[in-house]
Amino acid sequence: MKEIRPGDLMLFQPGDMYDLRIGYSEATQLSSDLYFLGNGEGMQEWWERRERAKVANLAENNRLKSLWQQIILEKRRLDGGSPEMITALVWSLLLQIDRAMDEAPENLSPLAFHALRMRQYIEEHAAEAFTLKEVARHTGLSVSRAVHLFKQHFGVSIIGYAQQLRLGRAVSLLEHSPLSLEQIAAETGLGSYAYFHRLFRERYGISPGAYRRRRS
């Protein structure tokens, strides 16, 4: 018998048999459960892609939680939600489940898990100003160890990866938003326009303003 912990995801195909027993240990902990029932060709295609564990602990995957919440909110709209939007969100959820299971602690070496936790932290905080010390603290490593480990696993520095994410977001805003260049610099975590301008030109060989004019 397997004990289910907070953050565990259970996956069952139609027809699968299981016996779920709800009891209490000496140290009880309040929790809530989320259920997702689905069928259709897309769901069947996802099931047939690969073998998956029946239970995986994905407690620290904030992207998965966010997608789950977006599906719930879309379904709760007064008009019932957009079928196209719900389909897109569900497919994103399924793909994120696969990624999260691949990156679950039990499937990784301790060093790889630390590296992935740092990457997730950077991705979640890229639009904010953060320090190397904060990234290292998130994984319980020293700054020097965190810097070396991240570069070893991903071939780019922590700051370099954050800059990639911020510049990628800046490109999207330049193409699709009316925000000023100064606002884009602030919105993406790049801070001042001067810094944004320098990094953008170094990476793309053109200034942000010229890029926007070319794309308009």
From TrEMBL:
Stored Gene3D superfamilies: Homeodomain-like
Q: What Pfam families does the entry give?
A: HTH_18 (PF12833)
What name does the UniProt record give this protein?
A: AraC family transcriptional regulator
An example molecular function term from Gene Ontology annotations: sequence-specific DNA binding
Sorted keywords for this record are:
DNA-binding, Transcription, Transcription regulation
Q: Which organism is it from?
A: Paenibacillus nanensis
Repressor among the record's keywords? no
Which segments constitute the HTH araC/xylS-type domain? 116-214
